Amino acid sequence: MISLELFAWIVPLCPLLAFTVITLGGYRNRKFSHTVAILGVLLSIIFYQILFWVRIILGNTPDSLAVQISWISLGTSELRFGTYLDASSSLMLFVVPVVCLVIFVYSIGYMRDDKSYSRFFAYISLFAFAMMGLVLCDNLLALFIFWEIMGTCSYLLIGFWYQKPSAQKAALKAFIVTKVGDILMLLGLLILYSETDTLAYRFLFQDQVLHELASKPLINGASVATVVAFLLFAGTIGKSAQFPLHVWLPDAMEGPTPASALIHAATMVSAGIYLLIRVFPLLVVSQALPYIALIGTFTAVIAAVMATVQDDIKRVLAYSTISQLGYMVAAVGIGAYKASLFHLMTHAFFKALLFMAAGSVIHSVEHGYHIARGHAVPVEGQKFSPNSMLQMGGLRQSMPVTALTYVIGGLALAGFPFITSGFWSKDAILTEAWHLNRSVFWALALAAGLTAFYTVRQLSLVFLGTPRSQASSHTHENGNTMIIPLLVLALFSITVGWVGIPGQFPVLGRIVPDVLEIAFESPSLQHIAVDTMHSQAAVRFAWAPVLLGIALPALGLFLGWMLYGRQPLETGDEDPISIFMKAIHMGWLYRFVENGFYINEVYQTLVIRPICFLAEVTSIFDTGFIDWLIRSVGRIAAGFSIGVKVIDENVFDPDFSKLSRFSLSSVLEWIDTYLLDEIVNIFGFISNILSVLFQQLDERVVDGFVKLVVSVMESLGGYVRRLQNGLISDYLWNAFLMVLFIIAAISFLQ
Amino acid sequence: MDLPYLSALIFFPLLTGLLMIVLPRKWVNVIRVLGILSALLTFVLSSYIWWIVGTSGSFEMQLVENRQWISQFNVMYTLGVDGISAPMITITTFLTVLVLFYTAFTIQDRVKEFFVLFMLLETGMLGVFLALDLVLFYVFWEIGLVPMFLIIGVWGGKRREYAAIKFFLYTLSGSVFSLLAILAVYLNTGTFNIMEAVAAKPFVDNDLWGNLAFWAFFVAFAIKIPIFPFHTWLPDAHTEAPTGGSVILAGVLLKLGAYGMMRIALPLFPSQFYFYSFEVPIITILALFSIVYGAMVCMAQWDLKRLVAYSSVAHMGYVALGIASAAAGVNVIGNDPQSYNAASASLTGAAMQEFSHGIITGAMFFLVGMLYERVHTRDLKSFGGLAKQMPVYYGFMLLTAFASLGLPGLIGFWSELFVFKGTIRFMPIMAAIGVLGMIFTAGYTLWKVIQSLFFGTFDHERWENLSDLKWWEKVTLWPLVVVMVVFGLYPAPLLHTFNGAVMTLLNNIIAP
Fold first, then answer.
1. pLDDT tens-place string over residues B269-320
2. Which of A564-578, B56-70, B342-356 has the weakest average pLDDT?
3. Does the structure show a pLDDT above 80 at A452?
4. Which residues contact B385 (CB under 8 A, 6 or more apart)?
5. Residue B364: predicted pLDDT
6. What is the mean pLDDT of residues A415-444?
7. Contact A197 B409 (CB under 8 A)
């Protein structure tokens, strides 16, 4: 058994070794770097497959893999470190290294011209290590460690092109915003650690321990389980970009596209979902689930809305990722954790595919731009941006393979029935939502419709019609290292869905076995906390969610086709939605959505600027007051000693000839220098501090508010003016929106 | 037979220093090699002592030496080592080796004096960590002060005299308080021996004197740590000190205060410490304030070295918080195993933070010094885009910065985790505030240090000739980085030593 136990450790260590080799000198040779990185992941896959199948054949339980090493001892408690393979982690490990491998190969082509080629492969190897470690480890503390290492890799990769100020800002923003979630998560871990003196899954997820956690009150009657569940969920909100911490993900697209595909779509962002699935037994006994469902559903809908108006090809996909992650969170929230895991797996493939296909487009457009300039063709007035979909168009002719794979990925995202994987996983979530929470179902179905709509919009803008810029007309298909990974992922994007076709599904269910269900029921992969988990009832098949799950995306597809596909845009055309919204006097709403509801601006004003202001004030206070106080003590002590000297000379040892002339004047002089001067100094310091303080206050706080108000007023300006014009239709629209909002709010609160 | 390992360890550097004094001033390289070799030997010896402590299986004081010293006043020459002091002496000798090695290549001026002073300094520092007699502790404490004063004053930057005097007077006025407290303890218990005094429970029935003595010790140690509002000597001293001086100042000298807090103030006055950490939580609030305040000042700082200095204030706040949190639990740890584990956690966290901060900030000051040697400016606004020009430097700095902001997987994370694990049990709100402070740490470290140095546009005209790290600089940094990573991934050996000693310390406090 020794060999088997070792394999579980070796799986994540292969990429770590690759990282180490590249960092410690391998970076000098580009070819060596990517070979080592790819070899690392390849070995992980091989070792894992051997491990998995041997385990299935031998039929050992997760506990038989309990090789643990002594790790942390505090007082009389001890936390050991080991691996843990149950159904969730085993399934995750089928997906993660495969996606990594494909993206690594793709990067060879995509990063070909980059000067920091080896650095890139080092970072993504470290990332692969952290992700696999996160899935494999057997306690929450280790999970948190890997979680943070991934966050660091994400920071480094977003800021990979560090010369660009936008990349710098985006990297810092991503790190800090997710850190907010991480810190809350850490608090949750600390409470759990303090209550149980361990963080090992094997101990925590026993029915008895869970029961104790659920019955022990902590704050305001909320149980330990509830408080911890909320805090851990905060970690997910940060990592998986849920509202209100989703703001970092769209900006994270500043990183190289393979990094976006790997980290900000396929794997790292889904670590948050994995955390929820992992601690699901704890969530079940807490009161957090309805709120998790609420946040997930809300995010799924608003992100889908935001995705419909983006012009940047990657930002559409970023908002789409947020929306799909919202789906998964909502699924966990209603108790459908298996469906959530299933969607996580299919999404990893088709979203990686979409990002890489988008990367292929961008790569090609950038080359097209250089060719266009090389031929001295004047590049038209608009500022060139390789990501702008308005400057693309007609790429299906020059890039047929990319177009084909993009369409496959897009259809999977839109949930095209029966063929694509996205359909099956989305269907699994919708079916459960239908039975468990009808309002979540309707919201998610609406999001599915929107998803189909923006997918068609994107496909049409990029691939249909004629090129809308010189750069796009000089595009050509990319090389094999980029094309073959796309084809591989396209294949997976279709087939992966078939592993989860429910057994009760008419016709297909009987042909294809439901591998997921088998995995979850398999004794070798049995989840712990059996009783708690089995309180979740199995869900029956129903026609309504399936049909609605087909109908709403179909509607979205149809509308998208009518607006964008039937008659593709020409150069300089305005977006039809924008035209439409202006026509119905709702241009403000369009801008509001386009700018992501101004959430960034709100954070800037209410959080960032006050904190910077406070920092400046503290710094001034430190040198201006605390240190000054100390220096004054010194000065006064010195002054005192001189005073004593004056007294000594004039009183105890008076030189009578000088007394009349000097004593009074020297005392006065002393008072002047050491007392009055100090008082003047005090006022000087105070006024100095006040002036700097007011200046800072003005710059950072007042100014911020003014800017926020101005930008909000600008966007509302048209709206308010219309109101004053008194158009009945506007009132109706507003009333309608309000009613819609209130209905949504009420249905959730039930 | 028991060899006097501890005396040998303490006085070996001093003997080397005496030998150096008789060597001719011109034999610069001989002095350098001698200094480094001696420091290496001391390091090996201290590691061996750690090994003895770690493998003995006992968590009491080891290798105790007890001799008459000033018999009229019952002052003894008592030395001993346990799981708290063993890692501290090792980090002292470890950093001394690195500093002397680095200095051998960078300081050309008055080499002999520098090395002699450093040997004296090492003796003083080791003595503080090993002394078990209050008078001996005080003497070593003062011995360490003079060489550092001279190191800052002679080899420092532009405002070196001001910084040196400020450092000296500030610490000295603090230690005067501790001398008074030592005398008070002696008059009450009749002993200068720390362990005996702990068992005798000084001033257990005299509230006024107990409070006075406690605060006297507290202020002396708080100045050295330093805790807000006693911290303002630190930025000046750090900024003006030469690189080696800053490294030892941050790496070891600050720990003397924390060590005193842990070894003397807490065990001698547990009820006072409890009262002011929990009932009237002045100490806890000051510790928390240091964390948040230090981080805030860092965010507004554009002078690289001052920034690192203020970050020390914030990081040492975690040590103070850990000790305060353990003190907050002294009343309940006797009968509640979870509280006992929590108090052990925060005290272990505090001890571990002393160790990890020594490694991380030591590396940080080396890195800052290496940059300063090249460009002679510390203004962060004048840099940018150095990642391409100095990739190796970038790599080292990146790792150190991440360790400094407490990234899991590196050594700095553990101490913060353990401190908060304990604090959250006794004072959940305080813990929550402290944990939130970690966001600011992440903010200034990435924004100020990493992004303003390495990201952004590169000033070609100004920094074109900037060279990457030389071999000796890499040799200086590698050991520190290895320690950060190895203990970061696998803290068990370090924890094992700390935890046992911390449990003994707590048991002594709750013993009837």
1. 988 899 998 888 999 999 998 998 888 888 888 888 889 998 999 999 999 9
2. A564-578
3. yes
4. A162, A163, B454, B455, B456, B457, B458, B459
5. 93
6. 85
7. no
Q: Which residues in chain B touch residue A627, judged by CB atoms under 8 angstroms apart? A: 232
A377 residue type, one letter = V
Q: Per the structure block, which two tokens stand in for B297?
A: 């000042």
Residue A381: pLDDT over 60: no
Please, what is the angle between helix A140-158 and helix A224-239, to 10°? 20
pLDDT of residue B1: 45
What's the maximum distance between 2 C-alpha atoms anywhere in chain B? 71
Shortest Cα–Cα distance, A220 to chain B (Å):
14
Average pLDDT, chain B: 89
Average pLDDT over residues A415-425: 83
- CA-CA distance, A410 to A443, in Å (whole number)? 21
Distance between CA atoms of A460 and A254, rounded to whole angstroms?
Answer: 24
Determine contact: A650 vs chain B, CB below 8 A.
no
Q: Which residues of A touch B231 (CB under 8 A)?
A: 626
Taking the alpha carbons at both ends of chain B, their separation in whole angstroms is: 34
H/E element holding B495?
Answer: helix B492-510
Cα–Cα dist A212/A448, whole Å: 40
Q: With contact defined as beta carbons under 8 Å apart, do A340 and A239 qualify?
A: no
- Nearest CA to CA, how far is B308 from chain A (Å)? 14
B435 vs A contacts (CB less than 8 Å): 183, 186-187, 190
B498 in A contact zone (CB under 8 Å): no
**Any idea which residue has 């009932």 for tokens?**
B279
Distance CA B143, CA A650 (A): 40
Alpha-carbon span A634 to A631, nearest angstrom: 5
Asked if A619's CB is within 8 angstroms of B387's CB, the reply is no
* Chain A interface mutation, best of B455, B486, B494, highest count of A Cβ atoms under 10 Å: B455
Q: With an 8 Å Cβ cutoff, is A180 touching chain B?
A: yes
In this complex, the residue of A115, A172, A190 whose CB is nearest that of residue B424 is A190
pLDDT tens sequence across A453-507: 899 888 888 888 787 777 777 778 888 888 888 888 888 888 887 777 776 777 6
Nearest to A412 by CA among A402, A404, A423: A423
Residues 107-136 of B with CB under 8 A from A: none
User: Is omega for the bond preceding B229 within 30 degrees of 0, making it cis?
Assistant: yes
Tokens standing for A30? 């580009």
Q: Is the pLDDT of residue A529 over 60?
A: no
Query: How is residue A651 written in tokens?
Result: 């009183």
- Could you give the C-alpha distances from B256 to B95, B140, B417, in angstroms and in order? 15, 11, 22
Q: List chain B residues with CB under 8 Å of A231.
A: none
Enter the ipTM. 0.90
- Region A437-461: what's the mean pLDDT? 88
The model's pTM is 0.86
Position A222 scores a pLDDT of 84
Question: In the prediction, which pLDDT does A1 show?
Answer: 46
How many other CB atoms sit within 10 Å of the CB of residue B283?
27
Q: How many helices (H) and strands (E) does chain B have?
A: 24, 2
Enumerate residues 6+ apart whose C-beta is below 8 A from B18: none
Rounded to a whole number, what is the distance in Å from the CA of A270 to chain B's nearest CA?
20
Q: Running DSSP on this structure, what letter comes out for residue A648?
A: I
Taking contacts as CB-CB distances below 8 angstroms, the residues of chain B near A619 are 296-297, 300-301
Does A194 score more than 70 pLDDT?
A: yes
Strands B62-70, B75-81: pairing is antiparallel
- In B, minimum Cα distance to A696 occurs at B300
Establish whether the linkage from the previous residue to A244 is cis, with ω within 30° of 0: yes
Whether the CB of A641 is below 8 Å from some CB of chain B: the reply is no
Q: Contact B496/A73, CB-based, under 8 Å?
A: yes
Q: Which residues from B are below 8 Å from A186, CB to CB?
A: 417, 420, 435, 438
Distance CA A399, CA B309 (A): 56
